[in-house]
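Lab notes, practical 5.
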Amino acid sequence: MRSIRILSAAVCSGALLVGPVAAPESASAKQPPSATVITRWSAIGLRTLFVERSTPIPTSTLFLGFMSLAVHDAVTTASKGIVRRGHASADAAAAVAAHDVLAEYFPASTANLDADLAVDIDAISSSPAKTRGIDIGHQSAAEMIASRVGDGRDAPILYTKAPVVGIWRPTPPTNTAMLVPWLGFVKPLLLDSATQIQPDGPDGLTSADYAADFNEVKLMGSLNNSGRSPAQTDTALFYNFNSVMQMQEALIDLVTRHPMDIVSASRRFAQVNASVADAVITCWRLKFDVGRWRPITAIHQAAADGNPATALDPSWASLFDTPPYPEYVSGHASVTNAFTQSLRLAFGSNTTDLNVYSGVTGTTRHYTSLDALSEDAFNARIWLGIHFRDAMEDAVFVGERAATIVDRRLR
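Output from the prediction step:
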C-alpha cells in the first residue's frame, strides 16, 4: 500500500518516483523469474506519463498498452524457448522492451529511463542469456513501435457538430474545446476497429428513460441542495481521481502482494492495458460520432428538449466541473469496466483482493468484489453531476466487451 500512496503523491507534487530494484535473475535458476520487473516498469510508466509529463488521461492508455504488449511479447519469447540459441533472460527482455517503448514516445524522459534500465541490467549477472534477453527486448519494442507508425495519433481532426438541442458543446466554466478528438480514430491495439463495439445509443430526449436519468443527475449530482448522503459524496470524490492511475496502481499492488511468475504477470498487465486502451478508443469514437450533451447543458436548456418531465434550472451546477468532451459514453466507466472484466477473465472469479487509492480524498478502499468496485465508480460519475445513467450503462458494455475480445486475441 505504501508504494501506491508514494506514486499518487508524486503525481500531485511533481516528485520523481524511483521504484524498487529488480531482483537478479540467475540463468541456471529452476524457478521462473518473479514479476518484480513487470510491476517496477509499470510504475515507471506511470511516472513517465504523469509525473514527468502531464499526459492527458485518455491518451495515456495508448502508451501503457504499447509498453505492456511489447513487454509481454518479449517475456514470452524469452521464456518459451523460441530463441534457438538457448536460454534468454526474461527480466532483461522485459526491462529493455519497456524502456525502449517509453523512450520512443517520451524522449524528454530518456535520461531517467536509461538510469532505470541500468539498475535492472546491472542486477543481472553477465551471461549469454542476459545478452539474448537484451536483444529480444529491443526487437519486441522495435516491432511494436513500427506497428504503430501512422496509427492515427495526433491526426488533425476537430469536433465540429453544431450545438443544436441534445448535442454537446463546450461547457462552463472553462468552455474548452473537445480534448483529443483524434483518439477515436486511432487504430486499436487488438480490436478490429474503433467501431467494432456498438452499444444501443443514447435514449431519445423525449423518452421516459431520458427524463428519469435527467432528474436523477439533476438531484444527485448537484453542487447545491443535492440528494446525496455524505457517504455518496465521499464516493463521488474518491473516484474523481485519475482512473488510469487508480486501476494501474491497484494492479501493481495486487501482483506485488500475490506473487506470480513473470510470464503470468506480463500477460495480466498486457491484458488489462490493451483492454483499457481499446475501450477508450471505442469510447472516444462514440463521443465524437454521437456528441451527446452533458447534464449541465441539458439542465440549463431543458425547455428545448421537448420532454414534459424535465425542467430547466439555469443556475444548476454540478458537484465537479464537467470535463471537455461529449457525454456518451463514459470514459471513466470504459476504463473501470475494461479493468474489472480483464481481472474476472484472468482469475476466473468476481472475487478479488484490490486496494484502490484516491489522491483526491487521500484514502484507500479495499474491495473483495469486482462488481462492488464497478458499482462505486459507476455511481460516482452520476453523483459528480457529469453523466447520465444511460451513458454509464453503455460504457460498462463497451469496457467489458473490449476486455472479452482482447482476452481471446492476446497470445
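Observations recorded by the TA: The chain is about 55% helix and 5% strand. The longest strand covers residues 351-358.
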